[in-house]
Amino acid sequence: MAQQPLxxxxxxxxxxxxxxxxxxxxxGDAAVSQLRTPFAMALPSFLQxxxxxxxxxxxxSRKRGRVRTYALRPETLSAASGxxxxxxxxxxxxxxxxxxxxxxxxKEN
Length: 109
What we know:
Blueprint lengths: L4 H9 L2 H10 L4 E2 H5 L6 H13 L3 E6 L2 E6 L1 H35 L1
Antiparallel strand pairs: 1-3, 2-3
Helix pairs in contact: 1-4
């Protein structure tokens, strides 16, 4: 079963290594070797993290010669942020309704 794009984004964001990579890329494009430096892991394991980020649409890569460079795709984060904002607004309305109901019960007693 294929995962929905939003599912892929949240799966990718669920890992601290991948979030750290996104933080690094927020400062600018970087080669795999630069991105991997802070992490004590084998290259194949690190490349799997990059693949998950790319599959989710959070980063894009390009290869020049022997160097593969990654860049952030902020529009994908914006879409996830929009979904979270919709959920926040929905729950805020529900909590406001609950608050109003509880206040009405308190006034009745």
